[in-house]
Backbone:
């Protein structure tokens, strides 16, 4: 029984807490509903609508204002009248049994009030836009009227800057004034929506007209005051310079200048029709070409004083280069009897002859043109400059060829000296080998000795031939030099092996009680008698080193010290 009472008590407490919570939440929602309702100010919008009624509207604007008023009445006033009673009675929903169902009803009221408030704000915005149109257009009436009047004043004061194009500009200005008057009429009639479209178009047209007016003077001025004088000056200059026998890199300059004058005339006609794109292109072309023709004439004026000195210098330089080439050919012909050329010296010299002939031909043509007064001075000057450069290149090649062949005689002398040195060297090697008093020399050594001797003999024959090929002789010299060094090394190795063997054999005699040493000495003697001195040395050295370690090094050190001392004494 007690447990049942506890459960009932808990349920009652839960229900009581839930009721209190729902009442608290409901009160907050009701407070929010009343605050939301107070935020919808019908009086303010109604006052704005009354002002629009009093503004004497017409046309589309009047229809738009009526539509706004109707929408406000239907979408705001009437719904509010229906919902106000429900908002006032919302507190009663928090009493009794309605408490648990009130939450959904209160939320529905809040949603309806929110939608009405949003509609009210949208309608207020529409009313403000209509009202602002009036203010904006009122300002535009004054501003645009002043701007149009300024254009009239500009045409009156500065009409000379526009040439005959002023007529079309004044016509366009009159059209703009017509559009302006139409806009003003529509504004004064109270149809601000229609007037706003007219104003947008008018502003676009005025901007384009303003840009047009700004561009015309800058295009007109050079066509009237600059280009005609420059073209007249150019024609006079061409005539005057032609009388002084000037010629130009472009033919028919006078006709081309006349063509530019026609372009300028056409551009003025296009400007009168306000074809500004074509005129701007023509003006740029005129400026570029006029500057170009001035440059052409100035180039010839500047070049004339330098032409004759340049021709004189080129003639002297050409004569010097031709004489050098003749001397070089003579040298090559003479040397070709004694030497073989390996770098196409003769062909290259003939090619230089052809280059000099080409330079000479151009030089003669230019001299004749100057004499006949038919020369384009700037071209003559360019030819001279190019000729000087070509002559410098020719002389560099001449010097290179001359240096190459000049070295041949020096190379021959060096080669002859080298051959004598090699012959002396091989004789010294032979004497040195004979002085060793050896029983004989190995076949391998003798073959190499005679091979080097033959090389020296062949080199001596080539160096005394009727016609020398110094490239081949130089290669032979390098080969013989290398082989001579190898032969010298082989001779030293032969000497060292033979003499060291003799010393080792003498030391081995002291160890006659050692059978291994005695046996090795006998074997070494066989090698020695067969001229295989290195093998003999290795045989006896190995036995001695086993018998008395360190013996070989002591004997070698003593031997090489003696060799070094003998070398120093001989030096």
Residues:
């Amino acid at each position: 029984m007690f447990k049942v009472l506890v459960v009932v008590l808990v349920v009652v407490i839960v229900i009581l807490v839930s009721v209190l919570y729902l009442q608290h939440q409901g009160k907050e929602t009701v407070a929010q509903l009343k605050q939301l309702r107070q935020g919808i100010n019908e009086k303010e919008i109604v006052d704005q609508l009354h002002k629009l009624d009093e503004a004497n509207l017409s046309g589309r604007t009047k229809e738009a204002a009526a539509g706004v008023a109707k929408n406000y009445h239907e979408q705001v006033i009437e719904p509010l009248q229906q919902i106000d009673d429900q908002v006032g009675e919302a507190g009663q929903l928090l009493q009794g049994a309605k408490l648990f169902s009130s939450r959904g009803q209160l939320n529905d009221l809040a949603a309806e009030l929110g939608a009405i408030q949003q509609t009210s704000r949208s309608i207020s915005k529409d009313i403000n836009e209509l009202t602002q149109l009036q203010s904006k257009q009122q300002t535009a009436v004054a501003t645009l009227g002043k701007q149009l009047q300024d254009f009239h004043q500009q045409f009156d004061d500065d009409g000379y800057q526009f040439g005959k194009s002023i007529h079309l500009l004044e016509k366009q200005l009159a059209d703009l004034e017509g559009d302006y008057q139409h806009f003003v009429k529509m504004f004064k009639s109270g149809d601000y929506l229609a007037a706003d479209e007219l104003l947008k178009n008018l502003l676009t047209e005025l901007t384009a007209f303003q840009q047009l007016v700004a561009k015309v003077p800058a295009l007109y001025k050079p066509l009237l005051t600059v280009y005609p004088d420059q073209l007249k000056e150019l024609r006079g200059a061409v005539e005057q310079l032609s009388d002084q026998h000037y010629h130009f890199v472009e033919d028919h300059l006078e006709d081309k200048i006349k063509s530019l004058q026609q372009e300028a005339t056409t551009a003025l006609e296009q400007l009168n029709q306000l074809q500004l794109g074509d005129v701007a292109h023509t003006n740029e072309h005129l400026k570029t070409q006029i500057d170009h023709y001035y440059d052409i004439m100035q180039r010839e004026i500047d070049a004339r004083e330098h032409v004759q000195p340049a021709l004189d210098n080129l003639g002297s330089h050409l004569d010097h280069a031709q004489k050098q080439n003749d001397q070089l050919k003579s040298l090559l012909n003479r040397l070709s009897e004694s030497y073989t050329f390996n770098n196409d010296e003769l062909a290259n010299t003939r090619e230089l002859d052809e280059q000099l002939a080409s330079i000479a031909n151009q030089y003669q043509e230019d001299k004749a043109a100057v004499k006949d007064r038919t020369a384009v001075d700037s071209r003559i000057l360019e030819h001279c400059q190019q000729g000087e450069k070509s002559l410098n290149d020719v002389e560099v090649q001449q010097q290179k060829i001359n240096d190459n062949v000049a070295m041949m005689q020096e190379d021959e002398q060096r080669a002859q000296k080298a051959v004598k040195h090699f012959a002396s060297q091989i004789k010294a090697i032979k004497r040195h080998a004979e002085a060793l008093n050896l029983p004989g020399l190995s076949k391998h050594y003798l073959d190499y000795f005679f091979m080097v001797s033959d090389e020296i003999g062949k080199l001596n024959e080539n160096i005394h031939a009727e016609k020398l090929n110094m490239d081949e002789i130089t290669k032979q010299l390098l080969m013989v030099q290398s082989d001579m060094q190898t032969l010298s090394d082989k001779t030293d190795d032969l000497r060292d092996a033979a003499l060291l063997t003799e010393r080792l054999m003498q030391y081995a005699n002291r160890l006659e009680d050692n059978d291994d040493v005695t046996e090795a000495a006998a074997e070494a003697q066989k090698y020695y008698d067969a001229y295989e001195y290195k093998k003999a040395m290795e045989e006896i050295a190995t036995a001695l080193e086993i018998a008395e370690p360190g013996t070989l090094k002591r004997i070698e050190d003593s031997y090489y010290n003696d060799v070094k001392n003998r070398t120093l004494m001989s030096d």
